[in-house]
Amino acid sequence: MPSLFDIAAIGNAIVDVIAPASEAFLEAEGLTKGAMMLIDEAQAQALYKRMAPGVEASGGSAANTAAGVASLGGRAAYLGKVADDQLGEVFAHDMRAIGVDFRGSPLAGGPATARCLANVTADGERTMCTYLGASVELRDDDVDKEVVEGAEILYLEGYLFDPPAARRAFAKAAGLARGAGRKIALSLSDAFVVDRHREALLGFISGQVDIVFANEVELLSLFSTDDMTKAMAAIVELTAIAAVTRGESGSVILRGAESLPIKACPVEKVIDTTGAGDQYAAGFLFALAGGRSLDACGRLASLAAAEVISHYGPRPQVSLRELASSKGL
Amino acid sequence: MPSLFDIAAIGNAIVDVIAPASEAFLEAEGLTKGAMMLIDEAQAQALYKRMAPGVEASGGSAANTAAGVASLGGRAAYLGKVADDQLGEVFAHDMRAIGVDFRGSPLAGGPATARCLANVTADGERTMCTYLGASVELRDDDVDKEVVEGAEILYLEGYLFDPPAARRAFAKAAGLARGAGRKIALSLSDAFVVDRHREALLGFISGQVDIVFANEVELLSLFSTDDMTKAMAAIVELTAIAAVTRGESGSVILRGAESLPIKACPVEKVIDTTGAGDQYAAGFLFALAGGRSLDACGRLASLAAAEVISHYGPRPQVSLRELASSKGL
């Protein structure tokens, strides 16, 4: 069947509130640097009150990836839930304006659009506290059959393992994609998410996932080990391709016995690492859907990640298609 | 009387939606590059739909200036009206988080918080379309006597001449400040604002204003001339100090027969000029309230403006106090 989309992404639809923070602030708030923790609405309000002035930008891990694919000139669709409020309007606008197919209707009368309070330290590292709000109201009814069956690759974020209803949507989507002979990609998202849902993630990966994205800490957590060699050997037993990101050291792409190191693209100054992994996935999946080599996938992934960490906000600020073309990719 | 604040600013409380745009987009939308035009809610929705994905950041000319003064370590208060909605909450948070005294209560049951749709071209120039929403509901009741009488300098934006109720608030504040022996500063804001309200502005300046901020186009418009020498001679007849900004050519400070040229601070790359004039005013007024020389006022003004044009968004992203101190200012 010819495809309608290069990727269909499913995730928590979130607006980011991004503000600079000191290391002392993280400590005083009891936040683990670099991690994502879930908070309720009251905690979100209390933390927001103490945060520095910031900017708001549409986020959400898989949504950022969909936006990145669209920016690269790919055909991307996104499934996620916002509320019928101002931030929901912003989220929907930003998806559609970048060219992502986003057809879900906003939730009325429920919780507000999800917010991620991202505190960015001077080294560019982001520490996130997420109020899931309306995003957890994503149901299996919201999984559009035409979209999922029509996409070359279904992309899922590990964060979706947290809300129980979303996990059912996740399972339905995976079933549809598998039935239509499509590929399934998964991002592990966060070491604490992996820790909370290790068995479920392992089961899902070994049964259905073709491509896994993880950073080193997440991969170690998945296999409860501190030995990277073991973890890398273990992941290729479960899935066809694994891309392991290593921050400024670049990444390693694993396929069976193959291990392909990819350099990070140099960045003048790292401003905000929010969205680095998401844009890495965007570059990788866009190239993979286009039938490119693993090396080409890795290089486009690195380029997309480099663009996003050089400014505040989790999505590209320039056309990634033009950027890639200017670099001969 | 000892002062409570260095400046009290009054203006339209606005959240900016900032997105990149091409010259062709401005033309297709019939927008005059670099200007601010007022639009209604329906126009705002229609334009927003066609705009590129963006980021949201608290804005509003005088509010940006108050934020800049606070970032410099000054005591700033702000009077302006937001609605009881998500963007209103963002605006209030950002003011308080940077240390500005913002005591007004949000408007319930009326129009939404004001939005400025700022389209930024590749040269960093911003073209603005503003839906004034709740901001025009600022009334003379909202003018807090304690705040206005307690501030060394009352700072007003020319944009306030557009909404009739706000103009009454403006007049009340000027009367209170004058009665308490305080200084009054005014920004001309925009050439079209000047064109719409030329006589009223001239009357107000000659009667009550001590410090005028204007760019060259605004100043020429105020005196309906195309001769800068004439315009500069005319403004010093009406007010004690005038600061005329000239983009990358710097600025000129006028006081009586004195004319003091100030260099622009070099910027690696101009990203977004939104807020340049507002931060210039912040640096200038903070130094002036501290009894510094006109030269010192101008240099701090240039530094604050340079910081804000080097990133998206109309307010400082670093502590201007630390930046100034690192530059020996």
**Looking across the biggest beta sheet of chain A, what order are the strands in?**
5-1-8-9-10-11-12-13
Overall mean pLDDT of chain A: 95
CATH superfamily annotation of chain A: Ribokinase
- Can you tell me the CATH architecture of chain A? 3-Layer(aba) Sandwich
Q: Biggest interface between protein chains, with counts per chain?
A: A-B, 31 and 30 residues
Q: What is the CATH C level class of chain A, in words?
A: Alpha Beta
- Tell me the count of domains of chain A: 1
Gyration radius of chain A, in Å:
18 Å
Question: In brief, what are we looking at here?
Answer:
With 329 residues, chain A is an alpha/beta fold.
Describe the protein in words.
Two copies of one chain form a homodimer. Chain A is α/β, with parallel strands linked by helices and 329 residues long. Chain A has one domain (5-12, 60-110, 136-326): 3-Layer(aba) Sandwich (UDP-N-acetylmuramoyl-L-alanine:D-glutamate ligase). Chain A has helices spanning 23-28, 41-50, 61-71, 86-98, 145-149, 164-179, 191-196, 198-208, 216-222, 228-238, 276-289, 294-309, 320-326, and strands at 5-10, 14-20, 36-38, 55-58, 76-79, 114-120, 126-131, 151-157, 183-187, 211-215, 241-245, 251-255, 258-262. In chain A, strands 5-1-8-9-10-11-12-13 form an eight-stranded mixed sheet, sandwiched between helices. The first copy, chain A, has a five-stranded mixed sheet with strand order 3-7-6-2-4, sandwiched between helices. In chain A, β8, α6 and β9 form a beta-alpha-beta unit. Chain A is globular and about 50 Å long. The mean pLDDT of chain A is 95. At the A-B interface, β2, β4 and α4 of A face β2, β4 and α4 of B.
